[in-house]
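User: Last request for today: this protein with prephenic acid, please.
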Amino acid sequence: MIDDLFDRANRPVRPFEFDADVARVFPDMVRRSVPGYAELVGLSGLIARRVAGPRARCYDLGCSLGAVTRTILRQTGPDVTVIAVDNAPAMIAGLRTQFADSDDAERVVTQCADIQTVPIEQASLVVLNLTLQFVPIELRLELLQRIRAGLVPGGALILAEKFAAPEGRAGAWLTTLHEDFKRANGYSELAIARKRAALEQVLIPESLATHEQRLTEAGFAGAVRWFQSLNFVAWLAWI
Ligand SMILES: C[S@@+](CC[C@H](N)C(=O)[O-])C[C@H]1O[C@@H](n2cnc3c(N)ncnc32)[C@H](O)[C@@H]1O
Ligand SMILES: O=C(O)C(=O)C[C@]1(C(=O)O)C=C[C@@H](O)C=C1
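Assistant: Here's the final one, the structure of the complex with prephenic acid:
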């Protein structure tokens, strides 16, 4: 389904929500909005392959329709399970439909729940792919601390985020090029502007330095930035 949600000029812009309308168009929306999304997801699968040994438990927090869940399943052994969590009922319903009749149905545990309270236990891998940015800033450290505490020795976190454009020309370049990416993918000026307004108080990006300091503060022993495309970035953090 084509994402044309922000093309309707007659509708007032309301804060962005992961509702049924968004769930319906989400694969198209995320592909046309996040530069390098397919690469980001695919490489996450290769990281899973490295860190998820026999009987490993992986968490996909803010799983949406399960793109990361699917890549983890594809890259790991048959006894590896994924706990896929999202608090948007339409997203979890879509994910359940997709996996219901698949060979992997028994490897996926779905939870329609808030990632801020869901227990994280014995995890080899936790993935926050474009999700922490929607958690209130003051709650982000606590979530990362809980994730860190829930990892087994050798376990890892994948954190992928839209990051705040730096001051000055560097930031202006990233913002402009991200909008050009959307234009090149067929979004109108109106749709770009309306989505920017809808996301304003909802997706709160932070600087690279803030994210890296928080990973240290949360108790991760180290982190490496392994992906960047324009203003989107991913780290692998270990304990
Ligand atoms: C941009 S999408 C994530 C995309 C997805 N990880 C992927 O790779 O395709 C963000 C998701 O996080 C979910 N989310 C945001 N805050 C959440 C929370 N506090 N608890 C659970 N899910 C949350 C949203 O419902 C949405 O589905
Ligand atoms: O920054 C934007 O304009 C985006 O569209 C980014 C973003 C994201 O990073 O989650 C926002 C909402 C949609 O879920 C898809 C992509």
